[in-house]
Amino acid sequence: MSKGNFADPAFYGNRELSWLLFDKRVLSEARDKQNPLFERLKFLSISASNLDEFFMVRVASLKDMVNAGYEKPDIAGMTPAEQLAAINKETHELVQQQYSTYNRSLLPLLRQSGLKVIERHEDLTPEEAVYVDNFYEENVYPVLTPMAVDSSRPFPLIRNKSLNIGALVTKKKDKKELEFATVQVPSVLPRIIQIPTEEGKSKAVILLEEVIERNIHKLFLNYDIVCAHPFRIMRNADFSLEEDEAEDLLKEIEKQLKKRQWGQAIRLEVEDGIDKKLLKIIKQELSISEEDIYRIDGPLDLTFLMKMYGLSGFDHLKEQGYASPQPVPGLSADCDIFEEIRKGDILLHHPYETFSPVVDFIRQAAKDKDVLAIKQTLYRVSGNSPIIAALAQAAENGKQVSVLVELKARFDEENNIVWAKKLEKAGCHVIYGLVGLKTHSKITLVVRREEDGIRRYVHLGTGNYNDATAKLYTDVGLLTCSASIGEDATAVFNMLSGYSEPLSWNKLSLAPLWLKDKFLYLINREKENAKAGRGGHIIAKINSLCDKDVIEALYEAAAEGVKIELIVRGICCLKTGLPGTGDNISVRSIVGNFLEHCRIFYFANDGKPEYYCASADWMPRNLERRVEIMFPVERPELRQKLMDILTMQLKDTVKAHKLMPDGTYEKIDRRGKVLFNAQQEFCNMAVAAAKEDGETVNRRVFIPRTHHEE
After folding, report:
1. CB 597 within 8 A of CB 572
2. Distance between CA atoms of residues 67 and 61, nearest Å
3. Range with the lowest mean pLDDT among 118-122, 573-577, 706-710?
4. Predicted confidence band at 238 (pLDDT cuts at 50, 70, 90)?
5. Beta strands 626-632 and 438-439: pairing type?
6. What phi and psi values does residue 111 have, to the nearest 5 degrees?
7. Which member of 43, 308, 490, 659 has the lowest number of beta carbons within 10 Å of its beta carbon?
8. What is the average pLDDT across 297-320?
9. What are the extents of the domains in the chain?
10. CB 312 within 8 A of CB 111
11. Looking at beta carbons, which pairs linking 491-495 to residues 24 or more positions away fall under 8 Å?
């Protein structure tokens, strides 16, 4: 097949529809009867959270394009308007499937398992009603702010993602005129209210909005309540920055963040059976079109199920036996991290191995009298970050500390502004990202004075410097004191702080400079080897694949006989089984107890294999609009560790979904196969290695949110 044929839009999938297929894979875990009941609740919550972010960013962006008259088709040949129409159909079906799972499968199983979820306040027993009403008077009523709408009081601003109860009311003296009123369900109160029950009986819970709805007449004493129904809106949370015109990026982002709560309404969720007059008022006031209204058969906003997971007394309905993260063999808690790195490069595999060595690397550097400078990029950090504390301490100890804090990390902007100010106050030199680019690379450089001169120690990773998500996301990191990588690391930070690009690089590949060209070169080299009869093999583990040039290069390589095995967690615009590529390309996605986040690449290179890890996915934004880093892994035992990660994921028969030629995903057919769960096996291996090393740590690990798309 010629190169020109692969440019046909028919050979590419739409990015947004592919993302919806990913969320369906998350939902499929909630529907999988092999999973413990409470884990199924959690996956359903995750699928709902994912969908919220998808609307706030991706759907919002498409609506902006349509409103601006932008009609350029994507790589699949779909215009923004066509994409919105297709998304609308798919998301309505997805939401229907979410609530079918909740109502028909999970609720009955919860009742059987001793947890009664009271769906309607009318179903309360007299004893339960007394408790609920008292709870309302003592805990809820003082917090509520009822809002009526009339000539002197305009329709209130409804906050993004807030849950509200809308009502139609009439004055008791004059019942002729219907008026609109609303009250926000306060997010400061727990949404799940547990009702005391006798010992040995089923536990009972009711949702906060049902308690408020039951007592809503107490908020409007001079009115009769005609009807009351919950509703929830999603707003456009994607903001664009005119960076060239923004004199102060930090102030501009702070200003834009305030607008996020009041962006254009793009989705309205209402209770199924809502009064038509009430819906008409809400629809008109929010300027919502009919296709953006979701009539929900059940409680709005299923993310509350994540809180339900935390109810006590149901551990037997949760995943058992996860022992993680484990100590890294050979790295004791009190070791000299610099001495260990000098012995040889160290590869960390999170969350199976602890993130502590990375934190210790920065903590020890902050206290070490021989450390002269610490430089680091930060994209997302935890709420109480020990890394931030260590960097601040290093500056206070007189070390040169330079930190690039990416203020444009979506939904972490506010958090990052707080940390940036704290670091500046401690004396760190803070860079607020680069104009026009997001800095998404994960790199730390420590410059240390030693007996034989200056030595540079470097940490490079595929994931963020976030000690919290490092227990939930699968990532790899490299600790090295390689002179060539150290030289490159210095060049990276000089480029970020002073725009000085070196004439040549040793080991690191950077986007947006030449990382994409490097990937295309490596793929093309496998193609040329296969063409010459030397065979070719590529294995890539990434989060997303939607770069047209990369996909086209993969198609061409497969057409020449290169075996291409892709492990793509989320979006995949590549298609399998195309004419001319044979069975040479396979794609699988793993949705498990941890969020797959590693980016690992293997190229056979005619018997001289090369292994790389990166912060970047194969997406235009990563390769063309972000600062990203790819680094080689060269130590033989570390390469074997990477190959073990790849081959075990390719063997998974429990959590893996295979991309079919028709564009759908199917769970791997388990018939006649040994059940193999790669994530569970990594846990077992980490525990065994720690036991052998004499430092086993047993801690329960929870399933993560899987919606942050990087």
Report:
1. no
2. 10
3. 706-710
4. low
5. parallel
6. -60, -45
7. 490
8. 92
9. 1-114, 120-297, 337-507, 510-676
10. no
11. 492/441, 492/443, 492/445, 492/629, 493/375, 493/402, 493/404, 493/445
Q: Please list the residues that pair with 349 across neighbouring strands.
A: 476
What is the pLDDT, as a whole number, of residue 703?
A: 38
Residue type, 648: M
pTM recorded for the entire structure? 0.91
Task: Please write the tens of the pLDDT for every residue from 599-642.
Answer: 999 999 999 999 999 999 999 999 999 999 999 999 999 999 99
The tokens for 131 are: 């408790």
Topology of the domain comprising 1-114: Methane Monooxygenase Hydroxylase; Chain G, domain 1 (1.20.58)
Q: Catalytic residue positions? A: 440
Contact 233, 265 (CB under 8 A): yes
d(CA 703, CA 148): 42
Residues 6+ apart with CB under 8 A from 215: 133, 136, 140, 141
Range 510-676 has CATH code 3.40.1190.10: no
- The superfamily (CATH) of domain 120-297 is Polyphosphate kinase middle domain (3.30.1840.10)
pLDDT: which is higher, 702 or 211 = 211
**Could you tell me which residues come within 8 angstroms of residue 63 by beta carbon, excluding any fewer than 6 positions away?**
84, 236, 264, 266
For residue 449, which phi and psi values (nearest 5 degrees)? Answer: -85, 125
Residues in the chain: 710
Same fold, 337-507 and 510-676: yes
Q: Please state, in angstroms and rounded to a whole number, the distance separating the CA atoms of residues 349 and 637.
A: 14
> With bands split at pLDDT 50, 70 and 90, how would you rate the model's confidence at 222?
confident
Residue type, 386: P
Q: Say if CB 158 and CB 286 are below 8 A apart.
A: yes
Give the mean pLDDT of 388-408: 90
Cis link prior to 512 (omega < 30° from 0)?
yes
pLDDT above 50 for 707: no
Residue 493 is which amino acid? F
Please answer whether residues 406 and 379 qualify as being in contact, where contact means their C-beta atoms are separated by less than 8 angstroms.
yes
Q: Specify the residue for token string 């047209």.
A: 548
Closest CA to 193 of 144, 147, 124: 124
* CATH class as words, domain 337-507: alpha beta
Residue 607 DSSP symbol: T
Strands (E), 580-682: 585-590, 595-596, 600-603, 610-614, 626-632, 656-659, 665-667
Spatial separation of the C-alpha atoms in residues 403 and 390, rounded to whole Å: 12
Spell out the SS3 assignment of 448-514. EEECCEEEEEEEEECCCCCCCHHHCEEEEEEEECCHHHHHHHHHHHHHHHHCCCCCCCCCCEEECCC
d(CA 238, CA 92): 22
